[in-house]
Amino acid sequence: MIKKELTCIVCPNGCRLVVEIEENKIVNVSGYECKRGLKYAEDEIVAPKRTLTTIVKAEMGHLPVVSVRTKEPIPKELIGKAVLELSKITLKPPINVGDVVVKNILNTGVDVIATRNLYSK
C-alpha cells in the first residue's frame, strides 16, 4: 500500500490529507473536514489540474506583455505545452480584463483570458 500526503487547497482550513492507494486505486482518504477535501484528494490523485497564470507578448500597447490565466484548471501534464502555445501569440490593443485571448487551449475546452487591460500608447 502506498500513502500520499496532501494539503487541501480548496478552502482556508488547509486540511492535511492522507490518501492510501493500493493497486492504482484509492482505498482510503483521511484528514479532510468537508466533502470538498475528499473530492480534492480524489481529483489530485486521479487527474491533477492546475490553473495556468502567465504572460503573453503584446505590441503597439502601453505594456510589453499582458497577464493571462486559464478560466478553469487544465490537466497538470498540459501546463508546459500550454505555455509553449501561449509563447507563440502576440496581443494587440484593445484588450480588456476577461477577454478571451485563446479559445479552447489544447482542446481542453478551457479558454485563456486576459487579467490585465492593454490599451494603445
What's the story with the biggest beta sheet? 5 strands, mixed
Integer average pLDDT? 96
- Helical segment count: 2
Structural class per helix/strand content? alpha+beta
Secondary structure layout plus pairing:
Layout: E1 2-7, E2 16-22, E3 25-30, H1 35-46, E4 49-50, E5 53-58, E6 65-70, E7 74-75, H2 79-86, E8 90-91, E9 100-102, E10 112-114
Parallel strand pairs: 5-8
Antiparallel strand pairs: 1-2, 2-3, 4-7, 5-6, 6-10, 9-10
Give a written overview of the molecule.
This protein is elongated. The mean pLDDT is 96. A hairpin with an 8-residue loop joins strand 1 and strand 2. The protein has a five-stranded mixed sheet, with no helix packed on it. A three-stranded antiparallel sheet has the order 1-2-3, covered by helices on one side. A two-stranded antiparallel sheet has the order 4-7. The chain has two helices and ten strands, in the order βββαββββαβββ. The protein is an alpha+beta fold and 121 residues long. 17% of the residues lie in helices and 36% in strands. The protein starts with a strand and ends in a 7-residue tail after the last strand.
Short description:
The protein is of the alpha+beta class and 121 residues long.
Keywords:
three-stranded antiparallel sheet; five-stranded mixed sheet; alpha+beta; 36% strand; elongated; 121 residues; 2 helices
